[in-house]
Amino acid sequence: MKKVHVIGIVGIPANYGGFETLVENLVEKRSQIEYVVYCSSKGYKARIRDYHGARLVYIPLKANGWQSILYDFIGLLKACLSKAENVLILGVSGAIFLPIFKLIWGNSTRFIINVDGREWKRKKFGLLQSLFLKVSEKIACKWADVVIADNQEISSSLWNEYKIRCELIAYGGDQVKLIDKHVEPVDRKYFFALSRVEPENNVEMILESFKEVNLPLIYIGNWENSSYGRGLRKKFASASCIRMKDPVFDKEELSIYRSYAIAYIHGHSAGGTNPSLVESMFCRMPIIAFDCEYNRYTTAGLAEFFCDTSTLCSKLTELNWNRQGEVVARIAEFAKYSYSWSDIVNKYEKLLK
To answer: What per-residue confidence (pLDDT) applies to 31?
Structure first.
């Protein structure tokens, strides 16, 4: 049985984001792989050592922010000193060290990296951070044995820039369970949005639009994690139609919010195949997404799209709901074909064997 060391996530069980959910599914559905997963001790009060047969190794640093660079370095070093056959790196922060590890352990260890989105393009990063991520991405594409992209647009842009052929493996979403698949539109009470509260997710644009049209919105996000989020929460506190809720990690609670939503509002403008968008495609509700190539590819162009406050307001007030039943069914069928975890795990296992 092949052993794979996983670097670059907060840890499992998943309590942070898409990469964590990916690894959780790889571990839970594994058939031919033995996993060692490096976790941040800062992210867990209880530090279990085994999760569904995967060995968990803790590093006393945060997995995000500036500490992520050292966090990934330590993970890579531990993996290579353990004579890992395969190292799966999630994100490009640790790729800055890849030439060193390849020169020393390149003959015995294979390095596979999922580059996530074009991280250096995100609005939340300053000039130095963007430059670092750009350099890291370039190094990843040059030095990794295998590069994974989760979206055709990411794969195409990396080919155009670095002439690197990526393995295209998307993200699963069929773990989402609705509490009642037969809720009628008349019983649905609100629009629903779920994201990290960051500028590239067009959070303010969405809030402005709902305030203007005075329609009910529940928006789940990490409002208290940044001055940007706290500022938005304060700015829109008086908008009675908007409820800004803190992060929800309980799957049953999220299912309740999704099950009774009129439609899902998706503002992400960067990052490839976004987990919350994929998950919403299994929820049999209309999707109104920000108009960018990533979102069009992910939804096969079947969603409704907006590009600014004006177009979002128009979608919210003028959408042909009679047509949406057919569209929602087509989105769900496409999702079932493209984003099932069993298929995603099989693709990773074939690659990692």
So the answer is: 85
CATH numbers and ranges of domains, the chain: 2-169 (3.40.50.2000), 185-338 (3.40.50.2000)
CA torsion angle for 306, 308, 314, 319 (degrees, to 10)? 10
Cis check for the bond before 13: say yes or no (omega within 30 of 0). yes
pLDDT of residue 187: 52
CB 92 within 8 A of CB 137: yes
pLDDT in tens, 101-150: 999 998 899 999 999 877 767 777 788 888 998 999 999 999 999 999 99
Confidence of residue 270 (pLDDT cuts 50, 70, 90): confident
pTM, full prediction = 0.89
Q: How far apart are CA 155 and CA 164, in angstroms?
A: 8
Please tell me the distance from the alpha carbon of residue 109 to that of residue 266, in angstroms, as a whole number: 39
Helices of type H across the chain? 18-28, 67-81, 98-105, 127-143, 152-162, 203-213, 227-235, 251-259, 275-281, 293-298, 309-318, 321-338, 341-352
